[in-house]
Amino acid sequence: MQNRNAPGRLSGHALTNFIATISATGGLLFGYDTGIISSALLQLRNQFHLDTLGAEIVTSAIILGALIGCLGAGSISDRIGRRRTVMIAAALFLLGTVVVSSAQSVAVLVIARLILGLAIGAASQIVPIYIAEVSPPERRGRLVVGFQLAVVFGITSSFVTGYLLRDSSWRLMFGIGMLPALILFVGMAFLPNSPRWLALSGQIEEARAVLRRVRLSDEAADRELEEIIENHDVQAPWSELAKPWVRPALTASVGIALLCQFTGINAVMYYAPTIFADAGFGQDSALLTSVAVGVGMVFATVFGGWAVDTWGRRTLLLRMLPGAVVALAVLGTTFAMHLTGGIGAWITVAAVMAYTIFNTGSLSVAIWLVGAEVYPLSCRGKGMSLVAGSHWGADLLISLTTLSLVQRLGAGWTFWLFAGVNAFAFWFVLRYVPETKGQSLEELERRLRNGTFAPVDRAVARSEARAR
């Protein structure tokens, strides 16, 4: 039996905190590399003579790479393990950062952003799973949300960096990302494998050893391992996700992933400086105001990390989404009434800040957590690939069309449209997203198998369908 109190050897909550912190560095890179483009784009447009389409392509290249990366990462993580897959993502972060920082043409810039996208997609797919599979049920929410906190901290860091380096080269803005990529690669080399992946791979004693390190007692670890083995199955094919018993998990997780983007959060994040400039702020003031948006996202995510384990995932979403609807309605009104400059500009800032807090503190907090929780172990990697793929596919569509949408509909109608999608998201959560707070991953799998997973009982749903 291992000595849990060996000097210099982390165990229990200390080890799970360390695992979550190192792993979440992938989220930091995720946020920084997606967010820095909003500041760098102001310089890139001038240096490479980019028109609106060119700016959208450079912005969106990283999203296309992320879409490819997340869809491929599921099968890879099932074969070689969660930890090694994160290390591959870290290596891609390093490569992409070197290439983007030295790009001399638009083509190389786009290729480099694609490489970074592969890394981001892989990280978004596997890091939440890795943390969820290591964490105890009562702490799983806040630890997985730590990944999203790292994402928004990375976004905020990119806004701060963009402002501080506004008179320096955009190459330095991108190059700063090499340090956290190196930390992620080296740090992951010292972390244990996921005990659930080990068990699924038939490495039962190795899984027991890891669980005994990350739980408060050997007895608790052994009980959890027995529960894992009881629900143990071989790796399932992609077709398993289409089976009726898995479908409620697919609906809830993919729905949240799509709505996280269609409600407009990344559209606001990518083009925040442009929105503020159109509202009457100068370029420097627009960049500085974007920093405030990033800070708001950090505080909203910290709050969400507390709320998911206190209120619950579903309750958090239902309490926060109405605020996002109101904020976007106000934002749309300020643009429709051309309230730019003076008090109108500050109403715009307040509306963007409020929307950012309500949306980031709800859907953006829940997306990776719910996706990592709801799938059965046998197809968790593939299920999370679909969650991440849905997220990045929707993100690609939004980032490619936001500026064009604003030009055709006007900013007012665009934000009113996003307000309507947020209202729809409230209804979707009410009907399809269950509460997962405090339940083990194996308990959630049992709920899927016995038909009690969805908040609306299947029999009730069938009765309502017949009535219609």
TrEMBL record:
Instruction: Tell me the InterPro entries matching this sequence.
Output: MFS_dom, MFS_sugar_transport-like, MFS_trans_sf, Myo-inositol_Transporter, Sugar/inositol_transpt, Sugar_transporter_CS
List the subcellular locations.
Membrane
- Look up the coiled coil feature and give its residue ranges: none
- The primary location reported for this protein is membrane
Q: Which domain of life is it from?
A: Bacteria
Could you list this entry's UniProt keywords, alphabetically sorted.
Membrane, Transmembrane, Transmembrane helix, Transport
| Residue ranges of the TM segments | 12-32, 52-74, 86-104, 110-131, 143-164, 170-191, 249-273, 285-308, 320-339, 345-371, 383-405, 411-430
Q: State the membrane topology.
A: Multi-pass membrane protein
Domain Major facilitator superfamily (MFS) profile spans what residues?
19-437
Family indicated by similarity: Belongs to the major facilitator superfamily. Sugar transporter (TC 2.A.1.1) family.
Please state what the protein is called: Sugar porter family MFS transporter
Instruction: Give the originating organism.
Output: Gluconobacter potus
